[in-house]
Amino acid sequence: MKSALILLCLALFAVAIYADCDPDGNGQPNCSGTSSTRYRNNWDPTRYWVCQGNTATTVLCDINTGFDPVSSECVSWSTWQWYPPCPA
């Protein structure tokens, strides 16, 4: 009985962690906190999200660049690499 309860708790924990990431969504953050983090736009690699107050706004990278979610910067297409939107 205890092991079943532990497995259930682990499963719920895993669901809670990955519930925030929707691989089919555009990646728009909810901006409930005060963060200046840049967020990947899952649908358009030339754009990223920035929270301004409680609103997420999209920002366009410079021409010939794409947003790199690892460095949180717009980088040249020669160095840009695709990454899965949700951690594995």
Task: Describe the protein in words.
It holds the Pfam family CBM_14. Residues 31-79 form the Chitin-binding type-2 domain. Residues 1-19 form the signal peptide. Keywords: Signal. One of its GO terms (molecular function) is chitin binding. The chain is an alpha+beta fold. The protein has one domain. Helices cover 19% and strands 26% of the residues. It contains one helix and five strands; from the N terminus they run H-E-E-E-E-E. The protein has one helix spanning 2-18, and strands at 38-40, 47-52, 55-60, 65-68, 73-76. The strands form two sheets. It has a three-stranded antiparallel β-sheet, with no helix packed on it. The chain has a two-stranded antiparallel sheet with strand order 4-5. A hairpin with a 2-residue loop joins strand 2 (47-52) and strand 3. The chain is globular, with a radius of gyration of 17 Å. The two termini are 30 Å apart.
Question: Topology, please?
Answer:
Elements: H1 2-18, E1 38-40, E2 47-52, E3 55-60, E4 65-68, E5 73-76
Antiparallel strand pairs: 1-2, 2-3, 4-5
Keywords: Signal
Signal peptide: 1-19
Domain Chitin-binding type-2: 31-79
Structure characteristics:
88 residues, three-stranded antiparallel β-sheet, 5 strands, Chitin-bd_dom_sf, chitin binding, signal, Chitin-bd_dom
Give the gist of this structure.
The protein is α+β, with helices and mostly antiparallel strands.
Number of domains: 1
Which sheet architecture does the biggest sheet show?
Answer: 3 strands, antiparallel
Q: Give the terminus-to-terminus CA distance.
A: 30 Å
Summarize the amount of helix as a percent range.
10-25%
Rg for CA atoms:
17 Å
Extended strand count:
5
Relative strand content: 25-35%
Q: Average pLDDT across residues?
A: 83
User: Major sheet: order of its strands?
Assistant: 1-2-3
Poorly predicted ranges: 8-18
Shape: globular
Coarse structural class: alpha+beta
Along the chain, the helix and strand elements come as HEEEEE
Count of alpha/pi helices:
1
Signal peptide: 1-19
Pfam family, one: CBM_14
Domain Chitin-binding type-2: 31-79
GO cellular component, one term: extracellular region
